[in-house]
Amino acid sequence: MGNENHRAKLKSQLIDAHGRIEYTYTQHHIIANRLLKKYRFLKIAEIVLTAVSTVGFLATVIRNQAVLAWIGGFGSVVTLGITLYTKDFNLESEAKKHKDAADALWRVRERYKSLIADFGALTDEEIRNKRDALIEVVSDINEKYPGTDDKSFKKARKDLKEDEKQTFNPGEAEKFLPPNQE
């Protein structure tokens, strides 16, 4: 009886760890996407504002109108603000780090799924050894890559719990198999 209780706790621990990895994996994707979206927006804004500044300057030289000078000057000031805002960090590089973290966590997530699926065929010692190895891998990933934030956690919770983005309806996954492989 004690051994069954222990195995149940062990399996529960694996399921909990898998769930936490699923959340963290999803959060890293969310942060990477958010950073890339912000990066693209800022780059487009810089291009547009630089064009407005240049056109404003050239139009002022050609037509000598103060309004165009103000528009060009305003464009220059905002462009300078964006440049100063982005000078100390690289959104593209940060997004890549989060993408790399998600890729590393994908492997861990799949190993946890396999461990849970193989649970009944493994001894307690084999399960503990595999679990401990996965804990070490996750620890290494956490040390190597940036952490996540509350905003990404809330979005991940919505994506995973409400929208069920990482799950399949019954029979849905089988549709991806070649014919006669079900």
Quick structural overview:
The protein is mostly helical and 182 residues long.
Kindly describe this structure.
The protein is mainly α and 182 residues long. It has helices spanning 2-63, 66-86, 91-118, 124-144, 150-162. The protein starts with a helix and ends in a 20-residue tail after the last helix. The mean pLDDT is 86.
Spell out the helices and strands N to C: HHHHH
Number of strands: 0
What is the helix fraction of residues, given as a range? Answer: over 70%
Task: Tell me which oligomeric state these chains represent.
Answer: single chain
Rg, nearest Å: 25 Å
Please outline the helices and strands.
Elements: H1 2-63, H2 66-86, H3 91-118, H4 124-144, H5 150-162
List keywords for this structure.
182 residues; mainly alpha; 5 helices
